[in-house]
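Final report, closing paragraph on structural work. Over the funding period we assembled a curated collection of sequence-structure pairs, and we close with a single example.
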Amino acid sequence: PACMDSQQRVEAAAEQLRLYQRDPGGWKGCRSSGEVAVSWRPSAEFAGNLYRGEAILPGSPRHVWDCIKPVAGGLRTKWDQNVKDFEVIEALSDTVSVCRTTTPSAFMKIISPREFVDVVVMKQYEDGTMLSAATNVEHPLCPPRPDFVRGLNYPCGCICIPVPGEPDKTQLLTFFQTDLGGYLPQTVVDSFFPSSISGFYSNLTKVVKTLKA
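Its predicted structure, as stored:
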């Protein structure tokens, strides 16, 4: 059945993220601000790039996780400027769901609104690491809509890693590999992701600080 297939695909996506996490080879730095280091390498999944963001955030893994976890009514739509709407289309288990994300227009409206349909998994590991992973999926309740360009996420997600001896800090690794679809100049795509990832980290840092207060 389709739902078993989706679950297997997203479990594989979570494994991919763990491999990306452990694999130091081939990354090229493209932007470092005070808050985040962004690097990239060619994706093995599609004809684009895999981007990696890394930073230490000023909050416990639980606080950070609460801000980013992919749940209906979660905090992410409130602080993440690239997420306009997030809805769970079908829960396949208590940790796996099919979700639809819409994004607003971006980059001075050069990038029109997008929609993404993904199967998403949430995992927690014995060392306290928490992970969410996603990959694109088709779902009968989510046919493409005329007012959005359908984009495709390839194995992507977030890994919250406890910092030894620092309970109020979290190392957050994010991996993005997204085919935005449509007809965008490559130069636009290549400058959009690093700036968007930097924005993701700075907005997330602000909200983590307010949660702690």
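The two ends are 46 Å apart (CA to CA). The first helix runs from residue 2 to 22. We thank the funder for supporting this effort.
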